[in-house]
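Input (structure):
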């Protein structure tokens, strides 16, 4: 996104925040640090501007690993379907590549009185807001917000800095993924100078796994099957597998089996299919090279979306059917 386009959208967003009285923010399903950190940082900015602001947990329970984020205790334990939208005049939607990332439980229809602002970094985002700031060149929504806050000349507090740095750090794989730029490091350094204690938050996050997480990891890795002449790999667990060892979604929140599988030198793409609820399979796609395999396109063919090298989908089918669909979609691109 060109600088002038970014600044124009940024100014429009700030004007809407200034006009608003009651602002809603949410966390996307299975929230990661970019979702939570971005929402908490934006909420703090809105409150500093004198706005009544509510952050809801969305479809998923708030992960234990994110409890160390500043102001995490302010997240309201409500799903989108439980919110009375008549109480709000502005909905700021962050890190949500499509309407399903607001909720998977009900159809999303915005009432006419509710202004919507869509700030995101997913290339497949269809620009569903009244105002859209979608910059797929940025590796994290938190990086977009850091730029916005500097444009707005709002004071970035240590809490905001920690939340934004955490979002940037985790969504870039510790500054290793494609999309990381000089700007990424400059903004991260700026935020770190404000809140050097952020490293303690990151360490806490990494050390909150359940013992069942190790069981999950071993079962998932053992299920891995090569596809597409060995250029891809698919792993997955059924709802029956989860029940057999009494693993809950909370036990495995934040674990990425796809990234671990991609460490194998022969695999160009790795996919996990996890039926954490009966008949509801979450699919995670990872690619080593977007020129070889653009997983956002594969995900889109299954009703999902995301980035060229990291994408996801929700398939409302039993595990065996969903896995079959995924393998067929993969083999079309792998040959």
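Output (sequence):
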């Amino acid at each position: 996104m060109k600088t002038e386009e970014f600044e124009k959208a940024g100014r429009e967003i700030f004007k809407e925040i200034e006009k608003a009285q009651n602002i809603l923010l949410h966390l996307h399903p299975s929230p990661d640090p970019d979702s939570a950190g971005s929402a908490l940082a934006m909420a703090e900015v809105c409150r500093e501007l004198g706005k009544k602001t509510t952050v809801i947990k969305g479809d998923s329970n708030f992960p234990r690993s994110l409890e160390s984020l500043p102001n995490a205790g302010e997240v309201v334990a409500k799903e989108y379907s439980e919110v009375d939208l008549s109480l709000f005049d502005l909905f700021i939607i962050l890190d949500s590549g499509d309407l399903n990332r607001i909720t998977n439980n009900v159809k999303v229809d915005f009432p006419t009185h509710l202004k919507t602002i869509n700030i995101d970094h997913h290339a497949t985002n269809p620009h569903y807001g009244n105002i859209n700031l979608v910059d797929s060149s940025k590796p994290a929504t938190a990086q977009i917000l850091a730029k916005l806050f500097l444009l707005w000349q709002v004071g970035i507090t240590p809490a905001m800095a920690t939340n934004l740095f955490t979002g940037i750090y985790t969504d870039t794989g510790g500054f290793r993924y494609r999309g990381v730029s000089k700007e990424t490091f400059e903004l991260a350094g700026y935020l770190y100078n404000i809140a050097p204690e952020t490293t303690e938050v990151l360490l806490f996050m990494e050390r909150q796994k359940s013992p069942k997480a190790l069981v999950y990891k071993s079962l998932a890795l053992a299920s891995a099957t090569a596809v597409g002449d060995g250029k891809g790999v698919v792993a997955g667990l059924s709802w029956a597998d989860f029940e057999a060892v009494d693993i809950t979604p909370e036990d495995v929140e934040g674990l990425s089996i796809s990234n671990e599988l991609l460490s194998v030198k022969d695999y160009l793409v790795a996919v996990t299919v996890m039926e954490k609820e009966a008949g509801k399979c979450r699919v995670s796609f990872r690619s080593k090279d977007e020129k070889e395999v653009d997983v956002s396109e594969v995900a889109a063919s299954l009703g999902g979306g995301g980035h060229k090298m990291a994408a996801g989908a929700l398939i409302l089918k039993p595990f065996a059917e969903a896995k079959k669909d995924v393998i067929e979609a993969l083999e079309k691109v792998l040959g």
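Notes: The mean pLDDT is 95. The longest strand covers residues 269-277.
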